[in-house]
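User: Reviewer 2 asked us to show a designed sequence for the structure in our supplementary figure. I'm pasting the structure tokens here. Could you produce the per-position amino acids so we can include them in the response letter?
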């Protein structure tokens, strides 16, 4: 087990291999009433440079009367070099994502990436715990895929407002993860219940590291459990971005680092950070 102050997602990062490409849309289908899954055909070299936790900057098309100006950052939902596929899961909320929703198979989509600091898995970790809500599930899905490729056990705690909005459950199970679902509608998503689930996993030796994304409320619980048991943890943060490469400073937010409050760029110094550095908003 690695102590909290001895894990840094930035350490030993491979040299960046960032590409700007037009990729062909293979599918763009609804997952539920709010989310869609976008699948792009991508070259093997690009997919082999992807890592869990990274993102791409997507150039949303002029479609359906929408004319988005800025690119949209989108977490990698899945990358499959053998199939030549790059997957994204997104929620339709504004002009950019509505325009993405108009894409059909055969269309081209401009992408830049992969970008950002990825998750890390230490060589002696055999049990990972993933805690996510909403679209945060998309960010953590490739981490479960990477763990499966390494033969590492995963417990995925998936949260949503209602069972109908739980996503990636079958995906996580297909990757060998033990799935725990908690929802507001069923009264199981309280911080007290989440804390109890995490404590049981720690007591059973099934939590070498904790990962989270998608909820400030969940972040606080995961941070406390990690601190109380001296367990390493990482968080992928969501933030509005303009350039996606660290030049515009649009995505700056405060973090705890080296005993001080530091203003860091989520796109460049993140989006993955050591969990104790994150400050819930």
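Assistant: Here is a per-position design you can include in the supplement:
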């Amino acid at each position: 087990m690695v102590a909290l102050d001895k894990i840094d997602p930035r350490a030993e990062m491979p040299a960046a291999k960032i590409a700007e490409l037009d990729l062909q849309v293979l599918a763009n289908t609804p997952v539920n009433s709010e989310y869609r899954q976008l699948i792009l055909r991508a070259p093997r070299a690009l997919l082999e440079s992807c890592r869990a936790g990274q993102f791409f900057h997507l150039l949303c098309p002029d479609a359906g009367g929408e004319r988005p100006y800025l690119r949209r950052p989108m977490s990698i939902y899945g990358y499959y070099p053998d199939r030549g596929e790059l997957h994204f899961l997104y929620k339709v909320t504004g002009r950019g994502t509505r325009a993405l929703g108009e894409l059909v198979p055969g269309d081209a989509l401009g992408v830049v990436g992969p970008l950002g600091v990825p998750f890390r898995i230490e060589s002696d970790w055999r049990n990972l715990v993933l805690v996510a809500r909403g679209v945060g599930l998309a960010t953590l899905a490739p981490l479960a895929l990477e763990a499966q490729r390494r033969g590492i056990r995963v417990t995925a705690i998936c949260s949503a407002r209602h069972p109908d909005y739980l996503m990636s459950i079958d995906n996580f199970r297909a990757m060998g993860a033990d799935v725990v679902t908690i929802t507001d509608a069923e009264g199981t998503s309280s911080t007290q219940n989440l804390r109890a689930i995490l404590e049981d996993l720690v007591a059973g030796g099934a939590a070498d590291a904790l990962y989270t994304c998608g909820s400030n409320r969940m972040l606080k619980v995961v941070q406390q459990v990690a601190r109380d048991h001296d367990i390493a943890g990482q968080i992928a943060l969501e933030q509005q971005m303009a350039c996606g490469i660290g030049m515009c400073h649009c995505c700056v937010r405060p973090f705890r680092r080296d005993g001080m409050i530091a203003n860091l760029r989520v796109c460049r110094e993140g989006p993955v950070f050591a969990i104790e550095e994150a400050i819930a908003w």
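For the response letter, you might also mention the following. Residues 1-7, 9-15 have pLDDT under 50 and may be disordered. The longest strand covers residues 19-30.
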